[in-house]
Amino acid sequence: MELDRRHLVHLSTVARHQSVTQAAQELGITQPALSRSIQEIERILGLRCFDRLAQGVVPTSACRVLLERAGSLLGDFEKLERDAQQLAGSFAGSLTVGLGPVISAGSTILEVAVLIARHPKLEIRIVVESASELLRRLQSYELDFFVGDQSLMQDSRASFEL
After folding, report:
1. What is the per-residue pLDDT across 88-106, written as a single tens digit (0 to 9) for each?
2. Rounded-to-integer distance, Cα 11 and Cα 3, Å
3. Which is deepest, 11, 64, 71, 107, by most CB within 10 Å?
4. Strands (DSSP E) found in 60-111
């Protein structure tokens, strides 16, 4: 068996939560099924991906290297799916939008509601966090975009291409 998109999603979700149980809940699968998937990934790659601790799991140094590439690949895959849907004339799939706390109270919510009404097959997830957390999530491909404090973006341009 070869590594596939599902494996990359499982790997990145476990790493983000640092808990197989919490990751399984997010993914909508059982904890034993996710544990078997992680074991399968480790077998395919020939390396240990997580150090198992009493309070959860942490990615090994080798896994952290793989997670960087996995995040990029998953982001590219989602873009490919969206492009195909757009070419087919419909938007479907998921869109994760980050909003800063002040922004979330404004008109952006209304704009998202209009987007939902126009594209009922599009699943939209809204994340309200601090601007620094939204930037971290954008850089790790957990967000498609965010609306937040512009000064944070100016300070971060050196480390993140816009």
Report:
1. 766 667 777 787 776 655 6
2. 11
3. 11
4. 93-99
